[in-house]
């Protein structure tokens, strides 16, 4: 078993999209993925990429990925947001997730950020336990707030 973590390329985006779809199924939102491979390529590559992607390759197969991007905190300054980290279900428990997580933390450290943050579902106990074991703090007194496309449109119509 040879595990390799590297920055994703344009050619990796179909496999990354498959992992995103697998994550959506795991998170009980199988129909939520609206992006395409072309969207990933257009937004992740070029002069001003909106995200950075690392992939995990195990025995010549892409088995996991992590997507992150820079954010700005008015309290801390430059931060990194870990958007998604997924490992194929049949490859979990082999250290792939930890290797991807470590790569994102190295990326953040190399860029001198003041914080890395992400969201984890409260029912995903293996992930919660893993993150806590690494020293991450789970902020239980904060709400995750989102405005979807329909909500945005409805709000702006009323303004």
UniProtKB/TrEMBL annotation:
N-acetyltransferase domain sequence ranges: 3-159
Coiled-coil zones: none
One Pfam family in the UniProt entry: Acetyltransf_1
Top-level taxon of origin: Bacteria
PROSITE patterns: GNAT
The UniProt record lists the keyword Acyltransferase: yes
InterPro entries: Acyl_CoA_acyltransferase (IPR016181), Diverse_Substrate_AcTransf (IPR051016), GNAT_dom (IPR000182)
MF terms (GO), sorted A to Z: N-acetyltransferase activity
Keyword tags: Acyltransferase, Transferase
Family according to the record: Belongs to the acetyltransferase family.
Entry protein name: N-acetyltransferase
Species annotation: Patiriisocius marinus
